[in-house]
Amino acid sequence: MYTAQSQHASFALQLATLTLACLGAWAEEIPRPSAAANAQPTPVAEEIKVTGKAANEGDIRRNQPASKIIVGRDELDKYGDSTVAEVLKRLPGVSVGGGPGRGGGIRMRGMSEGYTQILINGEAAARGFSFDSLSPDAIERIEVMRAPTAEHSARAIAGTINIVLREDYKAKQPSQLRMALSEEDGRLQGRLDVQWGAQVDALNYNIGGGYNRNSRSNDSSGSRQGTDGRTGLSYDEVTASQSSGSGYHLNFSPRLTWRIEPGNTVSLQTFLMRNQSSSDSLSTITRLSGPAADYARAESHGESESTMLRGFGNWKRNLSEGAKLDVRFGFNSSRSDSENQRQEFLGDGSRKEIRLDDSEIEETGFSTGGKWSRPLGEDHSMAMGWDLEQSRREEHRVKLVNGLPEVADAGDLVVARVRKLAVFAQDEWNLGPQWSAYAGIRWEGIRTESEDALGTTSSNSSVWSPMLHAVYRIPGSSKNQLRASLTRSYKAPNTRDLITRPVLSDEENSRSDPDRAGNPNLKPELAWGLDLAYEHYFSQGGLVSASLFSRQIEGLIRRETQFETAGSGRWVSRPRNVGEATSYGIELEAKLRLAEIMGDAPPIDLRANYSRYWSRVDNIPGPNNRLDEQVPQLFNLGLDYRFKAVPLTVGASLNLVPAYTNRTDVDEWRDIDAKRQVDIYAQWRFSPAVQLRLAGNNLLHQDYETRSRQTGTGAVQSRSTTPTYTQWTMMLELKF
């Protein structure tokens, strides 16, 4: 299918074809040579090479049937980020949970983590995947899709982030070694990443790996006022906690591609991730008034380790009449072990109890999928395919209080099985020079089974997801276009939320610290989505855009805390489908070189984006009855300056999320502090093969505060303040 991203190559090809056609027509007019002449050696044909300019990220984005932001190797190398989260936080509509300078869940359009689909090489990220453990050096590109397409899962109400690991070795991307040393609050952290590849005849291989040693401290202080769950009397207390931890992340991702013959290629790639950490913490409670606290001091020590192995396979075969077959297959195997010991002491120093929480989780699975595509003319193509995934998760968890099982009747073992099947079809076509359109439909079915000592539960759900995308290129300007999308997406319940087995609270059971349990009757959240956008592209890859979106959500899942009278009576938090919700917003983006709009401008690259979000949960009264944890605003600003006299580039960026209030239930509120983060860097290029980068992250190192309020029965209000720290990093990059 012809696209604008190959205009230069297509023009050269058409010119060469026209030239050959003219030569052929001219040759028809020349008398045919005699037989003797035919006996002469045939002259060697002159080799004709057709070349074209490589499409930049702006060209690729412009010609996608659905809105997609591409972050390629050029941008990943440009900023020298040490984590994937640092890359993503600069993108429009993408935010990172947690306080400034602290990694957290990745979110799109301000919504909580579960609304954003995270993929690795087009497949769902395995349980336990950590952004902190994956170096940007291991990534070929990052694709951010605001609306779903049939080829990928529709479990993406907010959007999809697809991380594509390093692909085939390319001579223009030489092997490289990166070494980084960071300091934060007096603690040193080190990182080493390497990428190496080569081409040997029909074999192409690329080997990458990284090792990260980390050490961090996390302190917090707070206060709490409420009603004591044992006596019913009011209390007022202050809390404090100190924790420190260290560990390492290791990843290894080799890739092998075998070109059996032209149009017949097999690729194999594995991804190994290993994490290990240990932590110690001390927390205290000081009652200013009211009855004595459940404990005065608690000491904890934890050890954890996890290993994840994932394999990807891909077979691509060209068929007759321009058709193509793309078959994927993969497997995953992971294991995680954690042990946490917690001791609680009373005010007189005597030990009240000792808790041991030992957990072992093993998960295995396989997946396969494929796509058959075929052109239906010069400007029309269709495709259809399937996805199949099956996984088994076995969790063995022992929780002892003073040597006795905490939940004796539930047993120690939980086994969960998940089966997913999807089929899809999609059609793309150009309707003249102004219009291009995409239509797709996808059916996905999920079956979940869980088994423990309390019995077996199962859940079945399926979703049809129609999808329509259209692009209109404004006449008279090839750089301006409009986008529109109408899609159906969904959010499936987490496997853990479907399992009825309870997890008891570590502290005194109360409304603010309830037990947690699942609900096997949960149904998926369904959402109709409308996206509209205007985009203007500059000749050197820059762009400005404005987009609007709306999501109408049915069957919203929220956790509700209630006092359940069964047994001895306890506060329990369970997920439930509570009704409908609406979310909508606007996202503005500019990314360009200043010279593209000012002829005599200095060599400055500018990137800025602003997002404004609104949402409403129907069964919760306003104001502030927003989707859980959805930020109302998000602002990013960045500048990069390249000196002409010396090989030096400097830059700075600002990330701002204003404070907001979230009403999570009829009588529950959360107040979230503003998040302000300023980062700077300087990069000196000694030669094309050697460069040094110095960076400072979170220069403002603000204290981050959250507050919560609950009224009615078991009323409580609390406040927590967490300090953050500036991190300084020095990175040396060598290419060879």
Automatic annotation (TrEMBL):
- The UniProt record lists the TonB-dependent receptor-like beta-barrel domain at 192-699
Q: Which InterPro entries match?
A: Beta-barrel_TonB, Beta-barrel_TonB_sf, Plug_dom, Plug_dom_sf, TonB-dep_rcpt-like
Record-linked SUPFAM superfamilies: Porins
Keyword Transmembrane attributed: yes
Q: Where is the signal peptide?
A: 1-27
Q: Provide this UniProt record's keywords sorted from A to Z.
A: Cell outer membrane, Membrane, Receptor, Signal, TonB box, Transmembrane, Transmembrane beta strand, Transport
Entry's localization field:
Cell outer membrane
Q: Where is this region: Disordered?
A: 208-234, 497-520
According to the record, the segments passing through the membrane are: none
| Domain spans labelled TonB-dependent receptor plug | 62-160
UniProt lists compositionally biased (Low complexity) regions at: 212-226
Give the bilayer topology.
Multi-pass membrane protein
A Pfam family the protein falls into: Plug
List the CDD domains.
ligand_gated_channel (cd01347)
Its main subcellular localisation, reduced to a broad class, is: membrane
* Family statement drawn from the similarity comment of this UniProt entry: Belongs to the TonB-dependent receptor family.
Please give the name of this protein.
Answer: Ligand-gated channel
According to its UniProt entry, this protein's organism is Chitinimonas prasina
